[in-house]
Write a structure and sequence with these properties.
By secondary structure, this protein is of the alpha/beta class. It has a single domain, classed as Vaccinia Virus protein VP39 (Rossmann fold, 3-Layer(aba) Sandwich), CATH 3.40.50. It is built from ten helices and eleven strands. A seven-stranded mixed β-sheet has the order 3-2-1-4-5-11-10, with helices on both faces. It binds S-adenosylmethionine (SAM). The site of S-adenosylmethionine (SAM) has 19 residues, from loops.
């Protein structure tokens, strides 16, 4: 069984205070660049993996998607998503993405925001996604950037001499589980190198179309001064792929 941290009350109470959960997609700093990777959603059948509160699922329907199947493992997340959604064309399901079997040739777009870096069996899931896409169907996902997930202790060090913050990239090539503190101790994520992510996508028969290391723009830095750290090391990776 995977860790289900989003159903742990002390974690969840703090997670729901994040801007991206209070304000939705506009509260997510990477959203403008992620949105730019999406095709026109009009009439599309969409799968939203690790849907959380369903912010993207509702956005897709507001932008004329035909249907959205949204999946998450957390009962807390799904309960909120269902309360916030009044739309029979959006269906929420509880399932483990690490074990997911998908139908063939079903979806025009598979979307996932910040869920894949939790998965142990991501290569299997990407193969399932590839199978489930219609010809020319798209996969668009975001993850925590491998430079962000790599360190054994993901906290800045300070170079006193040069008065600079240093991101400690000590364990980049060591793939696998990382246990970190994020609101609470013991949050588990999976680290993979950039090369592994690329090869997982390519070996599933998808063509890579977009690969963006999210870094805050000068404008964003003015609005969110706290993003300064994200300019030192990228926090998110945004990926687009297409079924040939
Ligand atoms: C950081 S949240 C992102 C939620 C939403 N996509 C968003 O961007 O607001 C990660 C989500 O992935 C879900 N998740 C993590 N591991 C999962 C798994 N093995 N199966 C299904 N969902 C999972 C969590 O329950 C959580 O809702």
């Amino acid at each position: 069984m995977p860790q289900n941290i989003y159903d742990q009350d002390d974690f969840f109470e703090r997670y729901i205070t994040l801007d991206r959960q209070v304000k939705g997609l506009i509260g997510a700093r990477e959203w403008p660049q992620l949105r730019a990777l999406l095709p026109d959603l009009n009439g599309l059948d969409i799968l939203d993996l690790g849907c959380g509160f369903g912010w993207f699922s509702r956005f897709a329907r507001e932008n004329s998607a035909a249907s959205v199947r949204a999946i998450d493992f957390s009962q807390n997340m799904l309960d909120r998503a269902r309360v916030m959604t009044d739309d029979e064309k959006v269906t929420y399901e509880r399932a483990d993405l690490d074990e997911l079997i998908l139908p063939e040739n079903q979806y025009d777009l598979v979307f996932s925001s910040l869920a894949f870096h939790y998965l142990v069996h991501l290569p299997n899931l990407i193969k399932e996604i590839s199978k489930s896409l219609k010809p020319s169907g798209r996969l668009v996902f975001s993850i925590e950037h491998p430079i962000y997930t790599a360190p054994s202790n993901p906290a800045f060090l300070v170079d006193d001499e040069r008065k600079k913050k240093i991101w400690p990239l000590d364990d980049y090539r060591k793939e696998g589980s990382r246990t970190t503190k994020w609101f609470v101790d013991g949050v588990q994520k999976q680290h993979r190198t950039i090369g592994s992510y690329i090869n997982i996508v390519l070996s599933s028969g998808l063509q890579l179309t977009d690969f963006i290391e999210w870094l805050p723009t000068e404008e964003e830095l003015k609005v969110y001064p706290a993003s300064e750290d994200d300019g030192i090391r990228p926090k998110f990776l945004l990926v687009g792929a297409m079924k040939c």
